[in-house]
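Example (one chain per record):
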Amino acid sequence: MSALSTQLERYRTQVEDALESYLTTGTSQTLHAAMRYSTLNGGKRIRAVLTYLTGTLFGLPSSSLNAPAAAVEMIHAYSLIHDDLPAMDDDNLRRGKPTCHKAFDEATAILAGDALQARAFEILTANSDLNSTARLNQISELAMASGSAGMVGGQMIDIEATNQQQSLEQLQQMHALKTGALIRAAVRLGYLAATDATDEQKKALDHYAEAIGLAFQIRDDILDIESDTETLGKPQGSDLTANKSTYPALLGIDGAKKRTAQLHQQAVDALAIFDKKAEPLRQISSYIIDRIQ
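Predicted structure:
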């Protein structure tokens, strides 16, 4: 097992344990079960890993980052629940299992997503491992990345653009919000926990996050064409079926792969001001463009 694989597995286990502890009780057993079903069902946990790696880059103990790492994963889980709904993408499969509205029902899925969003901010507020300034900054960052100026705004653009041909610039802007905003927030949650991150370091990490966020989405577009449903854990070819603009459609498969390689290099270049402690972040960028699911 490579050093990166070992570190990924360690942080995945750590955030899974944190999520388990944050989702132990609920007033409604059905709602609570739906929240756990959609959050504790595997996944790459890339966003949580980015939070851990960025925070520990500044010398923070990883335990102090459990709350923000879990919070960003809860926001991601809520977004997937709603994204799969009949009013959105109407998908029946997620991570190889029935989607939340299929395993439970549509109303329960909507409420499970709502509750996960609220729980994410609740655990950030109560995180005694960080000072009040760090907690407030993290809450502000995650709220901005999740709302109309971030993920939700990007999802709305995606809905409005269905059956329409988007330009490359429009597609990039949509994904900078829909996918990139939460990945950028995951990195920022890490450095906002630190008290000694300089403006130059924050700017470098923002450039890194922007590059890997777009690369992540382009790789998703490529896998939607080249992979299969069993490997992906979700319906293959769903973007084509929904008649959505994608990077392979605009650039071709080879052009899309070339673009991910360029973005990977941009991400690596952005980390030039950091020493070898940032090597795991460089390796994450490589992992993103080479992943098979």
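Caption: The longest helix spans residues 199-226.
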